[in-house]
Description:
Layout: H1 9-15, E1 25-31, H2 34-43, E2 51-57, E3 76-82, H3 88-114, E4 119-121, E5 125-128, E6 131-142, E7 148-156, H4 176-180, H5 186-207, H6 210-219, E8 226-231, E9 236-244, E10 250-254, E11 267-269, E12 272-277
Parallel strand pairs: 1-2
Antiparallel strand pairs: 2-3, 3-7, 4-5, 5-6, 6-7, 8-9, 8-12, 9-10, 10-11
Helix pairs in contact: 1-5, 3-5
Amino acid sequence: xxxxxxxxxxxxxxxxxxxxxxxxxxxxxxxxxxxxxxxxxxxxxxxxxxxxxxxxxxxxxxxxxxxxxxxxxxxxxxxxxxxxxxxxxxxxxxxxxxxxxxxxxxxxxxxxxxxxxxxxxxxxxxxxxxxxxxxxxxxxxxxxxxxxxxxxxxxxxxxxxxxxxxxxxxxxxxxxxxxxxxxxxxxxxxxxxxxxxxxxxxxxxxxxxxxxxxxxxxxxxxxxxxxxxxxxxxxxxxxxxxxxxxxxxxxxxxxxxxxxxxxxxxxxxxxxxxxxxxx
Length: 279
């Protein structure tokens, strides 16, 4: 681990330039999971835009019930609580795009503080040179008054070195330090992340998906790749990722298995584990 400045509320707020996101920050030395703590606070009616941050996690979670490597003093683990009332006709759009715009905001934040290009593997894995530097876990729930809330959990590998990783992650994971050999102040990274996320959320609320979708499309390295997609029921689809649907789904044209069978129809994937395949 590379020594880095400790996380403090005062330091975070000293560089925070958001209008509403992160006005309240709950900072912990260690939590089982920032998403779990955020859910408890949201159920207790904590205000919109509250952020939960931990220096370490003992039971950090990623997508598809995977564990998240969460050592102390090195990385960024945070969860954002949202209470945005959406009309029924816009709710599906809001929920489906939330993970994608969160990944977009996180990628922009990493680039701003490190000058390192970050791509997004659909829907919300953050990659540097095809290795994972961060991920997103979005969850929804209702409070005691049945008011809905959403939680955006974000983990970013910041100052971890190659030898710090568990052996099974060394070939697939990376960190900003590992790629750039610069120590990033996590306070500054969090402040930048919250600013980028606030801008993306405001854009989605005020103007819909048009500009957000274009920005995501330009950053998404899955598009144009041959992919292997494992669906929730265990089925596997192999094909070319051709684009992003209006609902944030991944548009995949399955590869043909028999000569003369014609061009297969595009399928829209909403939940899948994606692997970029070498061609």
